[in-house]
Design goal:
Helix content: over 70%
Structural class: mainly alpha
Distance between the termini: 92 Å
Largest sheet: none
Number of strands: 0
Strand content: under 5%
Shape: globular
Radius of gyration: 35 Å
Low-confidence stretches: 1-62
């Protein structure tokens, strides 16, 4: 009687033997393929789908700090680690270039004075201008001129900020308001600030109100237009995500709209300060009165009346230094911090 082999049925979890045997290469390959595909359709097996869904559920249920760590790790994979920049390199990159530029300007100025490109009473030397500044310092009046203008500029800019920010939000979010006054804001931004001085003198007289009115009319359009540009550059996904989590109305403006529009808003603030400072100087040059005090603009006009060219250039130099100083000490650090927090600026800058 022929011997017949009997095979016990495979257990539900046991793989079926392949042509190369259970332990052969083909068997192992078949096991891996069969684990990922269904019986005859090539679809993922139920176990694989279940594990994928579980993994997705684990990611969805992961704490926010773990997700933040995952994002930081992915960012680290895409960026190259940079060593800390030495102080000497920072000085070489940031300090030396402007110092060299100023030195070249002074050398050219001194050469023009030496060869009398203009008569000496029209073009004094750098030493003459420095002497004029020293005289005002020794008189104890130099800081008073600077403080008078800086305080006016700061107050006027603060008022412009309080007016320009809600105006910019209104123009950016309300279509009818944008169609009505959006072009007017753009036109006001391009209008020279000095054009408002005669009208402001007629309206308010030779008072501080005239100066502040000119500053407001020069700075508000720039701040509002900067915010409008920042809001227009917000990805729509951010706004939809904010509405999904309930950030609507004032909460949406505070937590979604303004933070997302911050780069454009800061650019508008920088331009607004530049316009307010220029407007202030124009107003101080024209609106002169003993009741108004003496700022840098009035100092410049007094030097013109006295035909003191050294003092004229000294006043221009002070106006330039104050404008650049405010930009470098206040607005530039804020802008770098915002850009760095968004990954738009290298950490060593």
């Amino acid at each position: 009687m022929a011997n017949t082999e009997t095979h016990s049925p495979a257990a539900p979890g046991d793989p079926e033997p392949s042509a190369d045997g259970p332990a052969g290469p083909a068997g192992r390959t078949g096991l891996r393929k069969d684990a990922a595909k269904g019986p005859a359709t090539g679809r993922p097996a139920a176990g694989t789908a279940t594990s994928t869904a579980a993994a997705a559920s684990d990611v969805a249920d992961a704490p926010s700090d773990q997700l933040a760590g995952l994002g930081a790790g992915l960012d680290a994979l895409e960026t190259h680690a940079k060593a800390r920049v030495p102080l000497a390199r920072i000085l070489l990159d940031r300090v030396v270039p402007p110092v060299v530029a100023v030195a070249l300007v002074l050398i050219g100025w001194q050469l023009a004075y030496h060869f009398e490109v203009k008569p000496h009473y029209q073009l004094p030397s750098p030493a003459d201008v420095a002497r004029a500044l020293q005289d005002k310092w020794l008189d104890g009046t130099l800081l008073g001129y600077v403080w008078e203008s800086v305080s006016r500029g700061a107050l006027g800019f603060a008022a412009s900020l309080l007016i320009g920010t809600p105006l910019g939000l209104l123009v950016a979010r309300v279509r009818f308001v944008r169609a009505a006054i959006g072009p007017i804001l753009s036109g006001l931004q391009s209008l020279p600030s000095v054009a408002w001085v005669p009208a402001a003198i007629i309206w308010f007289g030779l008072t501080n109100s005239t100066i502040y009115a000119v500053v407001l009319l020069g700075a508000v359009p720039s701040i509002a237009n900067g915010l409008v540009a920042g809001v227009d550059q917000i990805p729509p996904l951010y706004l939809r995500a904010g509405r999904t989590i309930g950030a609507t109305g004032f909460a949406g403006v505070r937590h979604v709209l303004l933070p997302a529009a911050l780069p454009g808003y800061i650019a508008g603030l920088k331009q607004g300060w530049a316009f307010s400072w220029r407007s202030l100087m124009a107003a101080e040059l024209i609106a002169t009165s003993p009741e108004l005090g003496t700022g840098l603009g009035q100092l410049l006009d007094q030097a013109r009346v006295d035909s003191d060219m050294s003092l004229v250039l000294a006043a221009i130099l002070l106006i330039l230094i104050v404008g650049i100083g405010i930009e470098l000490l206040i607005f530039a650090p804020i802008e770098r911090r915002v850009l760095r927090s968004r990954g738009l600026l290298a950490s060593n800058r």
